[in-house]
TrEMBL record:
Keyword presence, tRNA-binding: no
Keywords from the UniProt entry: DNA-binding, Phosphoprotein
Tagged with keyword Signal: no
PTM annotation (4-aspartylphosphate): residues: 52
Gene3D superfamilies in the record: 3.40.50.2300
Record-given protein name: DNA-binding response OmpR family regulator
Entry GO MF terms: DNA binding
Domain Response regulatory: 3-120
UniProt record, GO biological process: phosphorelay signal transduction system
Length: 121
């Protein structure tokens, strides 16, 4: 079974992402902030990651930068609603720092699964 680290501090989005991926027979490992994400990445370097970019304490861009040290082959789907600067800005930044895929919120469960499938291929 494939593993996915879901990094999301918003309880609604964490539940939505986890439910959609679980239905696709993917084992979910949840993190609510960047520190938890990096800890899980070091323990499960063969997993994929769905990473919210706007997080408390350690943000998603910093997670992407540090992943090269703890899990250099991990494939990451960056997600964001954009905050003050807009989703496009953050998703382009995530791509610059190594995110394999990008998806703007709001998205459907099918869009998430399609993007995750492309990421994991």
């Amino acid at each position: 079974m494939s593993k996915c680290i879901v990094v999301e501090d918003d309880p609604f989005w964490s539940a939505e992402i986890s439910a959609a991926l679980s239905q696709a027979n993917i084992q979910i490992l949840n993190a609510q902030d960047g520190r938890q994400a990096l800890d899980l990445a070091s323990r499960y370097p063969d997993a994929t990651m769905v990473l919210d970019l706007i997080l408390p304490e350690v943000d998603g861009v910093e997670v992407l930068q540090k992943l090269s040290e703890v899990a250099p082959l991990m494939r990451v789907l960056a997600v964001t609603g954009g905050g003050r600067l807009g989703a496009g800005f953050y998703l382009k930044l995530a791509s610059t720092f190594g995110a394999t895929g990008q998806l703007a919120k709001p998205f459907t469960a099918q869009q998430l699964i399609d993007n995750w499938t492309a990421l994991a291929a």
